[in-house]
Amino acid sequence: MKKTLTIGMFHVTRARPTWRTPGFDGPDFTDIEYWTDLAKACEANGADFLFLADSYGYPTADDQVIPNAIERDVNFSTIDPQMLISALAAVTEHIGLVTTVSTMVESPPVVTRQFRTLDHLSRGRVGWNIVTGSAQAASALLFGEPLMAHADRYAKAADHVELSLKLWEGSWEPDAWKRDAATGVWADPTKVHEVEHDGPYFQSTGLLVTPPSPQVTPTLFQAGASEAGRDLAARYAEAVFLAAESKALADQISDIRRRAVEYGRGPDALRCLIAGTFRVADTMEQAVAEYEEAIAAVSLEEAATLYSYFTGIDLLALDPDKPIPSAAASGDNGRTNVERFLGPSAPTVREVLEEFRANGVMGKPFLGSAVEVADQAEAMIEETGADGFLVQPDPDGRNDRFFAEVMPELRRRGLIKESLVGTTLREHFFGEGQRTLPDSHPGARFRRSRVTV
Ligand SMILES: Cc1cc2nc3c(=O)[nH]c(=O)nc-3n(C[C@H](O)[C@H](O)[C@H](O)COP(=O)(O)O)c2cc1C
User: What transmembrane ranges does the database entry give (predicted)?
Assistant: First the structure.
């Protein structure tokens, strides 16, 4: 039987490249209708979820913002996606709504209250993408903290998630919220508990006052494919975002599933989702021509700024004909896009720049007619063992051709569902009735009593 694929739509709350088109006066990324229309379109076309990426960071070199990032808006201006989610929840009914909060930015009492609120307002459709965060150099400066060592950032992330799970799962027993007008009891004090946490980074004694939401804990995502990132995903995440070439993806996915088994969760505890760019045209020739035109529109300087955003490494300061030297490659910024270009067949700095100019962090696009891109996507799933795609926006940000041609083609092939399963995001992934974390998830050990429905 064919695997049923999960389809998520990726967006960053920044301007689309169309802002560069002379005379363009379409809705702007600061306009709420831009986002509500987008969420409605994603839902109408059958996507499982819409993901809004986020970071406080921006491209820096030597601890200063790169002027080219400001001038060309290279991973620069954004609005806060978390603020948008409740508006998107109000105009949609089924689609999952996922956003990122870095474990370096907000503390667990804040994160747990925000996501629980959103889980109520969306009736159980919210997901948290757990990251240590891109552009850490900028973020650390902005928050007035020293750049923390990479391994320590991930240790802090694990401590953050532990306390967050305690607050979500441990504060309220499932039947604690009474709202009983006859007795005047709001909640049973014997079933609402203060949790204790004395971790290496977070200490807390207290509880989450917001009553349990449909999913209790939002569906947990993770992104960041360094070894420490893969381990964090295997331990806690229910879905993971990955971007690389097919062989590297296959290795990452089997490594994450192996680690998930070691954590007692099973190989299918996570949906492994590939960040895929679909460049759909009438023919392959046309798709290739449009792709080449898009690459030509990006300067190598912009590509270097983008690379610096993810890694803190200034490629323009390095020898273009040699691989990234190990001294530069050992920094404490994001590791995924450093480790990608190391090893015996490491590309030269020039080749890394060309790769970033063409594909950024996302790997090569699927190119051609709807049938051709569906063939390529299907082959990618077989080669990597992934569970679906996080579809990147096309240049106008609307994915019109993906929705109109590729989704129906995937549906015709029996690769995607006719309609979403269940009402919560977790059910969309794991089946009807699976609204809360499964017992095999580490969060389940913080429950004081089990739901017996
Ligand atoms: C599809 C995809 C989406 C991502 N979304 C975010 C995001 O919204 N915010 C963020 O800080 N990092 C995001 N990341 C991860 C960063 O690129 C970066 O790898 C991570 O935050 C740092 O961890 P690392 O050191 O393990 O690479 C995403 C990665 C992928 C592949």
Answer: none
